[in-house]
Amino acid sequence: MNRARTGGAIALAGAAAIAVVVGLASSAQAATTLGASAADKGRYFGTAVAAYKLSDATYSGILDREFNMITPENEMKWDATEPTQGQFSYGSADQIVAHANAHGQRMRGHALAWHSQQPSWAQNMSGTALRNAMVNHITNVATHYQGKIYAWDVVNEAFADGSGGGRRDSNLQRTGNDWIEVAFRTARAADPGAKLCYNDYNTDGQNAKSNAVYAMVQDFKARGVPIDCVGFQSHINSGSPLPSDYQANLQRFANLGVDVQITELDIAGSGTAQASSYASVVKACLAVSRCTGITVWGIRDSDSWRSGDTPLLFDNNGNKKASYTSTLDALNAGGTSSPPPVSTSPSRSTSPSPSVSPSVSPSNPGGGGGNGCTATTSVNQWQGGFVVTVRVTAGAAAINSWAVGLTLPSGTTVTSTWNVTRSGNTWSNVSYNGHVNAGQYTEFGIQGTGTAGTLSPTCSGS
Ligand code: 9MR
Asked: Is 264 a known active-site residue?
């Protein structure tokens, strides 16, 4: 039924011997699995995986043949990993990570902070208690998987649907608008090598919701909040069709200086219509150099969260559908652009002076003067905790190292820092951010408990 072969394979069957030889030679060059073909383009092809299905030989057979990236479908969510406050449970997620390690697959982590699938103890929390619980959760989970995750969905689905273009109301949102950037800073501190993504649905074309996400990413990049990638879930159906500006939307985010990834692709339908939509998504990703990979949200139609829509690439028996063939063909047809070189180090925050000034407050005037640099601080304060972002701006000449004098008030405790080394009240550059060009800046961060108050940083550079 769905075992239709490509035109090339059909041609092989009826061809003369010499043509068979030629045909074999060319088909040996085209990759025959999704993962291998994506890898030829410097990208990955992944799937969501449920730990309890790994013992199903058909399921794991397809997984290990076709896919080189895995997202746990539910096993890394808050309810699964911290069912009781402070007691972490990693069994099912660890099982998936072990499978990935054994089969050369990489991992996308999903998801550290989300309004949904919270354990009941967190659902019942608010304010400082919830904020601190979120930070503790992210710190523990990202630390447990430190070095094992290619990219984390740090925050999932934080924006509202519809034309309003604002944040979704949730218990996390009510802890303060800065909850998203605190989540990203916390994740960066725990696993500096993981790419940190914001992930959402109905953001696949330009609309009020994706515009709001775009503005957030732009703001984060301007202020040095660590964000590396944006995930576009791409759950496509008749109520949420594939937008005509899908590629353009990916591109405009990429132009902000983040990777883009298609994170939960499924397309309701069947036959050639579905197959053609899958090919369109693949082509769009290949055409955007910072689109680093595609993940489908399950393997067989029967594995889908909405199996009635038959939205995946394999039928219930594990046979390849027409959509599989169109996807592989589109991958093999290839893009002309490749993604940027893979880097395991965190993105640097050194960048030209932004036109956007920090929107957090208070922002203290520069301190120090002299010796080539000034330091300013922006404080995000919530009840019981804070993040201080310190900006080091070079003067009229470039500097190769810097040290900021900054004393935090008594009663505060530093819980994490990023992009800096500390010795008492002196905060110095790390290897990758000592050099700052004239008039430009780099930023580092300090997270802690207590009240940061008004800070008076000094700066010396050389
Ligand atoms: O596929 C997941 C399903 O098994 C869960 O029951 C559901 C619970 O919320 O979450 C599904 O995955 C969702 C993903 O985590 C976030 N984006 C939407 C996905 C489909 O609902």
From this structure: yes
